[in-house]
Amino acid sequence: MGYEGSILVLAHVGDQLCWGLLQSRDSRGVDVLTSDGERLRWHARRILLDIASEGHWGADNLAQLEEATVRAGDAVDLSELWGLVSSENRGFTIQELCGMAFGDASPQYMGAMAAALHADRIYFKAESKGRFKPRSESLVQMTLEQQRAENERRRRVLDAAQAVQARIAGQDYDRDAFMRGVAMLKEAAISDEWPRDHKLLMETIGMVDPDPAIDAFRVLQQLGVFHEDENLLLYKYRLDQPFPEDVVQEANVLTVRSQDSHAGERLCPGLHVIAVDDPWTTEVDDALAMEVLGDDLFRVHVLIADPGAVVPVDSQVAMEAQGRGATLYLPNYKRLMFPAVISEQACTLSTDRDVYAMDFQCDLAGNGTVRGFSIKTGTVRLTQRLTYEQVESILAGDTDSEWTILYELARVLRTQRLQQGASIFDTDNVTVRVQDGRPVIYRYYTGSPARVLVSEFMVLVGGLAGEFCKLHQVPAIYRQCGPPVDVERLSGIPEDSMEYRYRLLQRMPRSRLTVHPERHYGLGIDAYTQVTSPLRRYQDFVMHHQIKAFLSGKNGMWSEQDLLRTFGDLESVQSIYSRVTRAATRYFLLKYLLVQGKMELQAWVVLHERGKTLLSLKDTGLSTWVKGTVGTRDEAITVRVDELDPRRDILKVSA
């Protein structure tokens, strides 16, 4: 049976070319009878061509016409056609171009030409309905070059995907293509977006996940490139890079040079010089010694490693340290600020050899009054290294020792800081380290005698060094922190509660670096500069340089402008390190819970807010929210683990 009508319509339907016989038309589209024997509505934007035709059309005829049109399309060469008309600055009808290409304007050839012209983005541009104008030669060449580049890009991605698949299957693969694939997978694993190359790579590999970053991570883990505990933020911020070879070579030269020219006054001769650290510490940069000057008068020596005596401030090693900003400590990784030959060997305080150091001498009365302060440079050798736990044992068993005197002085100093408005919160801290591939929890109390003893003298020296620089007009990097804000909103919350501590910490402004001596309200100090960790913090290293330059007659001292130039980088690095450290610590604490396999956990109720309850898990110190008002403030409760996924940072519990 034939169709009635005399106008043929060509349209793109899905990814196919379809002919239909026009039945009716309006501004939005056409109604046609198709080769499937159906009456369909085609939207106007799908229409490629409509032509008057003689003869009697039926479903079979239309199907044959569609096949003939596709075959004719294989013969369309728009490049050659463009070459014939490119010099003419006018539009051509489809019929004209069809005549040039085929010498025939029958429906299959017209349809093939219309389809090719509408799909073309290189040679012709639609000028008006049914007319196409050749593009300029320069535009055609530029577009062809872009197309070649795009094809090459796609080929390289597909080659990379093939190499990755071959490696997974244990087959031979192209190493260069494989390394490209690995680089793309790494970028996909850390990217906040999903670039088209990476999408094509993953689709070719056959990995499609709602979270493409997790998918890319899994492929890299399958390839053995990533460990299950891989920290992706190290790659995101390029913190996985080793020291440049020239920096390592210079560090070795500087170390040998320092060993050949050790000189300077021996600091604290005849005194017990003790370093107190965690057992895993490899960069020992501070120690304590004490002597009794008279009744109720003591001289406390805070001895700080002096890498500046080995590393010139303008050396490549120092410039690399400036870029790194600080040593990054993670549960399973450490990124040193100085090469290990400097920070863990030549300049770390040791019981085996003399090491360059600065002696910050503090003369203190028993009531904490500072009677004198001076700074000396020279060398020192440790008498002993102790852990905090060993110092705790000494303090618990010996009430008449140097440690007892130091602890009593530290208590007095802390009381004074509290009276001056310092915000001090003693908490049960949890730290996690990876040992033999497993996360291990360490707990300690920040208010323990040993930790109070060490921390108070480090804070004291920072305050006295700040006052020293202020008094002598030494350009310095000060750390400033404003007072807490909106503290009146805390009225009614018990000050010894977890909620009070949580909300007060939220109201503490972030500390910042400045060249002006401004008050640090958190510490209760008017001018505070950090000098106690020059092996681990670049600003401490710079402050050593400034102080020594002043002591030697201001030779080589940096100006305030010099210091200001370092601030932006240091603050930026500090922000990145804080984020990376928080993420890594949380990941391994979550993994610790996963390894333990406990379905029930003990938690403290911290606070209630907006129909939810904030909990602090006892084992790990992790915080998590649960729906509803659960328990009362500071109450110990039991919660059930509903979902736990360290890689996706998911911890869901219910009470």
Q: Reading side by side through the largest sheet, how are the strands ordered?
A: 5-4-3-2-6
Helix content: 40-55%
Give the C-alpha Rg.
Answer: 37 Å
Number of helices: 18
How many domains? The number is 4
Distance linking N and C termini: 74 Å
Query: How much strand?
Result: 15-25%
Q: Based on Cα principal axes, name the global outline.
A: elongated
Quaternary arrangement of the chains shown? Answer: single chain
Poorly predicted spans: none
What structural class is derived from the secondary structure elements?
A: alpha+beta
Number of strands: 27
Overall mean pLDDT: 91
Please describe the biggest sheet, giving its number of strands, its sense, and whether it closes into a barrel. 5 strands, antiparallel
Notes on the protein architecture:
- The chain contains 18 helices and 27 strands.
- The protein has four domains: 2-135, no CATH class; 139-226, no CATH class; 258-469 and 528-584, no CATH class; 597-654, OB fold (Dihydrolipoamide Acetyltransferase, E2P), CATH 2.40.50.
- The protein is elongated.
- It has a five-stranded antiparallel beta sheet with strand order 5-4-3-2-6. The protein has a five-stranded antiparallel beta sheet with strand order 25-24-23-26-27.
- By secondary structure, the chain is of the alpha+beta class.
- α3 packs across α4.
Question: How would you sum up this structure in a few lines?
Answer:
The chain is of the alpha+beta class and 655 residues long. 40% of the residues lie in helices and 25% in strands.
